[in-house]
Amino acid sequence: MPTFHAAQLQRLTAAVFRAAGAPDDIAEAVADVLVDNHLAGHDSHGILRIPEYLQHIREGSIVPAARPRVLQESPTTALVSGSWAFGQVTAAFAADLAIEKALRQHVSVVSVVEAGHTGRLAAFTERAARRNVAMFMFIGTVERPLTAPFGGAGPVLGTNPVSFSVPNPAGDPVTLDYATSAIAAGKVRVAKARGEQLPEGVMLTRDGQPTTDPEEWYRGGVLLPFGGHKGYALAVIAELLSGPLAAADAYPGVVGRSGIFLFAVDAATFRPLAAYGEAVSRTVGRIKAVPPAPGFDEVLVPGEPEARARAQRTRDGIPVPEATWSAVSEAARSLGVDVAAVIGSGADA
Fold first, then answer.
1. Residue environment code for 190-210, b if the CB has 16+ CB neighbours within 10 A, otherwise e
2. CA nearest 111: which of 264, 266, 265, 262?
3. pTM, to two decimals
4. Helices 6-19 & 322-334, crossing angle to 10 degrees?
5. pLDDT digits (tens, 9 = 90+) for 26-45
6. Using CA atoms, how far apart are residues 164 and 153, in angstroms rounded to an integer?
7. 26, 16, 52, 62: which is closest to 336 by C-alpha?
8. Is residue 315 exposed (0-12), middle (13-18) or buried (19+ Cβ within 10 Å)?
């Protein structure tokens, strides 16, 4: 499996999207998010997505030069159209808008419609937490339903991811970020690329039979909600917040999608920031002080595995499965990008 430095993957990703029609700043911004997802250990939302995004550009559901815009706003709210731009650009725009409003007014709510695929939501909620703003973000159904409801054998929901990032002035943000399906669709793609089987209990065949074969996903397989009725219930909340409440259904655009719902709170709303930070440190310390159970080395808080992965991969490089690298290289060459020249030396291929 080849291993690359983050800068190498960033240069290649930006070069591909520039060749596909994105302006320099947009290409760089999308590349930054995809590579940061790799650094956090979530390869399912990294360069694996390049061929998919290029297909969306060809189909017209991503407009590579488009930029998000504000449709209406108040001091604490905004309705944003993604304009079918890259979802990473749209989500960053919406998060930054929510951050600025929260810092001025203590709280803010932002709705996003006409949005492309954003990928890993923590890339945007942690953007807020690093500016001492707590942020919650939800996404509902996109295009093709993928996930069955609890007790159902057919798809009706998306993977409906949710992300919560809480500022931690003394360290990395405390972040919950996951799909409400038992496994993210991107992780099914990663398993296929690595030639691995899926865990049991995460997917059904199109005929409603349990399966661990990732190939069944491409034959119409259906994901299950995580945690049975609990994950299903959270998925429904994400669907309602990012659909009806966000007004996404009023902006169907070029494909039938739901939108994005963001809620932000200034960490200094109820007490001075220094006192808040001390309280977070005490709470995190109290949790981590619990003795580990058999089979565990220590207690971790949400977001800590990603922070450790980022440190390790920044130092040692990012491994990319052969199948993923082959598909990305082929996509790049199809646009006239000289992969070897862009990557340069230093890859362990």
1. bbbbeeeebeeebbbbeeeee
2. 262
3. 0.92
4. 40
5. 999 999 999 999 999 999 99
6. 29
7. 16
8. exposed
